[in-house]
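task queued by scheduler; priority normal; single chain, no ligands, no partner chains; default sampling; output format set to structure tokens
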Amino acid sequence: MRVFIALELPSAIKAAAAAVQRDLMTSEADVGWVRTEGMHLTLKFLGEVSDSRLSEIEKALESAVKGLSSGQAGTGSMKITVRGIGVFPGPRNPRVIWLGIQPEDDRLLRLQERIDRALAPLGFPPEKRDFRPHLTLGRVKSSRGLDGLMKAMAVHHHFLAGECTLGELHLIQSELKREGAVYTRLYSVAL
């Protein structure tokens, strides 16, 4: 099964993101748009994993969460602001359209680092790129309509979806289907 680790965002943030997404869709750019229910803050993609490895991954996540704030699970919830819009890797060759995630403090970055360290002994090497928290809105498929897309994005440059507090970390299965990815929570742990 294909799995990843993420934080889920509240429905109000997803609704605001979907509203911007609908406006960007009017550009008719060739983009695969993420469905609203599939929007989440990915901390680590693990890829294909057998069922037999799930329990060791769950223990690693518990270990990563413990001590994030004060040494006990359940006390490390964190506040974030979803603000700004952009593309990876850059405007000349956009591949991913995103909304920015701005954490209140360094706990989000520390959590991602702790997850990387906890999973490395299990054969999941740390990400080589710096972690840049974001909410993916869509993936660019071709250059068709990019000028219009970039103009539509410029209108939303200072977009603010809102603030929220995140309190649970999830191990999620991703099943790729014709109508898009279907996500199933396999395990959750309080921050």
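post-processing summary
- The CA atoms of residues 173 and 184 lie 5 Å apart.
- The longest helix spans residues 11-25.
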